[in-house]
Amino acid sequence: MTPELEQAVAGLYEAFSVYRMPEEVEMSPYRTPESEIGAMKTKPLRDLSAHDLTPFAFHALTTVGNSELLKYALPRLLELVAADELAVNPEIVVGKLAYGQWRAWPATEQGAIRRYLMAWWRASLGQGVQEMGFGIDTVLTAIAQVEPDLTLYLEAWELSVVSASTDQLASFVVDLWRGERGAFQPNPFLSKDSSEWRQIERWLVRPEVLRCLEDGQLLALKRGLDAESYDLYDTAIETVRVLLPQVST
To answer: How far apart are CA 150 and CA 160, in angstroms?
Structure first.
């Protein structure tokens, strides 16, 4: 983790420290208490492993527990998400916040969550494409589950001076482009009709993004870009170039 992300995770633990593991937890009769929350009842929160929390990460709020239980486990859940240790899609875990109506939670809790999301985003932009267990589209889509306005995140991407961030951008364009359909296609966790996806799509097809890709390719060449990565940049640049005239008209 980056120092910023470590600090943000520590902030989550502090903001949600008032919550305790309840003695009784309501759950669907189709869930098994021992597998869902057994470890949560016997171990300190920070000691819970990804294996311990995987069932709860899937079923929190929908069939296991309430918002109070989610808040208790949230710091560790999000810490494991950032470490890419949970065997659960980040979109599902972060999406629990929306299900729990987090925007109505106390301001200190909302602030801690937003600081975490931005720190996780910046840390992800700084990772090499091959280093990530999941793509940058997964991180952005997870954030889009809970942030209706992605402006700050997209600006952070555009203004990033880390070379890996433009590598991520090229990969993002290529991964989402469907040439046979002549359009970008969102991550399956994000509706094509959602305002968040429309914002991402509009942001992608802009001269500023094209310049980021072109500058990124030049920088990548200086650091010894391999043929596969060069082709990735070429495809991304050509895609945005083709789409720009369509937007302007």
So the answer is: 15
